[in-house]
Design brief:
Layout: H1 2-54
């Protein structure tokens, strides 16, 4: 009986931990994707600049 309570308590702690960690990983995903977009835009701008200076 006591072990059941301990297990459910640790399960609750784990759930709370996941709940806290989840938004952080979501923010990281968001930051990563916006960084990708920035890099892509920089790359495209660079290519356009090189192209326009060549032609």
């Amino acid at each position: 009986m006591i072990q059941d309570k301990q297990e459910s308590a640790s399960a609750n702690q784990f759930a709370a931990f996941n709940f806290k960690v989840q938004p952080i990983s979501n923010q990281l995903d968001l930051a990563e994707s916006s960084l990708d977009v920035m890099v892509n835009q920089m790359f495209l701008t660079m290519i356009r600049t090189v192209n326009s200076s060549l032609w």
